[in-house]
Amino acid sequence: MVEAVADTLENTKHLLVEAGTGTGKSLGYLVPAMRRAATNGERIVVSTATLALQRQIVTKDAPQVNEVLDEPARVAVLKGWSNYLCLHKAQGGYPEDSLFDAADVASETGKEVIRLREWAQETETGDRDDLVPGVSDKAWRQVSVDTLECMGQTCPMRDECFAARARMDADDANIVVTNHSMLGIHAATENPICGEFDGLIIDEAHDLSRIIRNQATKSLSGPIVGYRARRLNRLATVDVGGLESAGEAFEAVLDGLDEGLITVRPESLVEAMQVLDSKIREADSDLEMSPAEGAEKRMALSALSDLHNFMDAWSRDPEKMITWVSRSDDSGPSYLNCAPLDVAGPIARKLLAETPAILTSATMQLGGSFNAIGYETGIAFSDEEVETVDVGTPFDPPRQGILYIAEHLAPPGRGGVSTEALEELVELAKAAGGGVLALFSSRAAANQGAEALREALDVTVYAQGEDQIGTLVKNFAEDVDSCLVGTLSLWQGIDVRGWACRLVTIDRIPFPVPSD
Prior knowledge:
Radius of gyration: 24 Å
CATH topology of the largest domain: Rossmann fold
Number of domains: 4
Number of strands: 15
CATH architecture of the largest domain: 3-Layer(aba) Sandwich
Shape: globular
Helix content: 40-55%
Strand order of the largest sheet: 3-4-2-5-10-1-11
Strand content: 5-15%
């Protein structure tokens, strides 16, 4: 694998590598990439599907490689703006989010916000992943901003800005470690967020097209329109009565539609969207005339951004978009969703053109062929030569593990995990004496699993959502009899060796729906 990656970077071609569990594929591409980038002063982007693998590369694998290189490579991470603490907001430079007010100060969220403001005076990075223990999303929103909310050059804390400093580090790095969502922004917009690069390495490549499509998918509901309208009114005193009414009419139309794919757009939906679009434009004009300025103006603009993004997606050629209605449950709101039909084209044009690219994963082939992944990712449409390599795996699963299928359990349904399945999980965990990685297809199911294990076992149970992924994985690896419960973020990209992870349970295999 090392030789194949080095040859690909040298000769500007493309490479598909299937590297099974245990091959050390991250070292397989980092060694040649870091050596070449440091020696030649090049800039190579490494992208992962999961934050867990992204963090592993930056904190563990890349430093390991640098220890043996004659000339170490400069390594930096590239994340979204809101992953970094905003000093100006932490010091009260922005109005409080409507989800948090003075009454919350004594609450758990309030305590987290106070701790975040104290941490702001100590941290050198402002990176949320460096905060141990972590905090809830609600608390983090009180000290972070997105790119639209950021005041940019007018911010009084610009020189100390953590996010801006991280971007400058990434601009100056030989190896930039990012994620597929950021690549999606780079591929789908005119904003070259990853900058210029001399090579591209995509790990967990089997998830690339799905994540880029998800990143490009826009969703809208009546309650979202109402929330954005009220937020706009609070921040900029804009009259939003018309926008709220349009949102309610849009919601009524959606509720009358069947869940699933929309092949022909109903006239009632088209008319509701036309009215909504006109009210969004009116709100835009009113915001321009509003006396609001500074942070309030930036946050008001951000409040409208989701609505604009959805209308942009809706207005594209229907033959090039997938449109469908979804509902989270019987009592939840209806969502209208728009996604691009083709993501392979933008990937090929914006990411792979005239740039050596290595795509790797433990699961690249389908039926012994790389054709499917080639078409999904656009690499098959590239003008460059494409080579394929299968380096196998050092493991012998039939000799080193046991596969157990609980065939006596009923198939999982939409109502969450059954009582019988939870009882089975508990019995398996007891038999293993802990050391369980319990994976679930939904957050609700994971919460049920964590609760069941905590009630039945006298061991520590770590659950996704209660701390940062990196912290949870680290604690799980160090506490050999503990359990870790989570969802898709933990399905791949984590490295827990030995006795600490002796049992993996899966509530349902995440096969895509055949009709997708």
